[in-house]
Amino acid sequence: GFVGAVVMAIRELKVCLLGDTGVGKSSIVCRFVQDHFDHNISPTIGASFLTKTVPCGSELHKFLIWDTAGQERFHSLAPMYYRGSAAAVIVYDITKLDSFQTLKKWVKELKEHGPEDIVVAIAGNKNDLGDIREVPMKEAKEYAESIAAIFIETSARNAVNVEELFQKISRRIPPLDPQELENNEAFKLTRQPPPSNKRCC
C-alpha cells in the first residue's frame, strides 16, 4: 500500500517561458527562483535553465524552467524548449501592445506544434507601470479565457503575483494517483520534509 503521508512524490515539470524580448521573462524567473530583481539584466542568449521545487498538495513539484530568448533570431530554437513541456508561460509587457500581439503568435504556434495537453499561462508583466498601460487587463483576460489559459498580471520588480503564477500552474497539473506512483519508477520518492523557501540555486 501507500507508505504513509511523509513520503512525497517529486514530480519534475518542464516549463518554458516564451514572449517578446524585454517583456521580463528572465526577471519573472529570477524573482521566482531567487527572489531577486536586477534592473540591468541583459537579454538571454538561446535559453537559460533554473529549477525550483514547491509543495503542491501531497506532491513536490520541481519546476525545470527554461527561459528562452525573446529575440527573433532565436525563435527557431523555441520548439526544443516547448516540446515535452508540462506548461508554457507566455509573457507580454502590459505597456507594449506589440508584445501582446507576439503572445498571440506564440499561442498559435503552441496549438499547432506544442504538446497536446500543455498548460498555457499568460502573464502580463510590469503591472507596476499601470499609468503607461497599453493592454487593457479586461481584453487580455478575455483572450486568455477564450483559449482556456491561466491569466495573471505580474510585477517581477515588485514581486507581485510571481509565486501565484507558478501556483496556478501547479494546480492545473492533475495529481498522480498513489497506485500509479508505485508502478512508476520515473517519479522519485523522498522522505524529507517539504523544502523551506530558502534561496536556492
TrEMBL record:
Keywords: Cytoplasmic vesicle, Endosome, GTP-binding, Lipoprotein, Membrane, Nucleotide-binding, Prenylation
Subcellular location: Cytoplasmic vesicle, Phagosome membrane; Early endosome
SMART domains for this protein: RAB, RAN, RAS, RHO
Membrane protein topology class: Lipid-anchor
GO annotation, biological process: endocytosis; Golgi to plasma membrane protein transport; intracellular protein transport
Tagged with keyword Mitochondrion: no
One Gene Ontology term of the molecular function aspect: GTPase activity
Name listed for the protein in its UniProt record: RAB31, member RAS onco family
Organism in which the protein naturally occurs: Lepisosteus oculatus
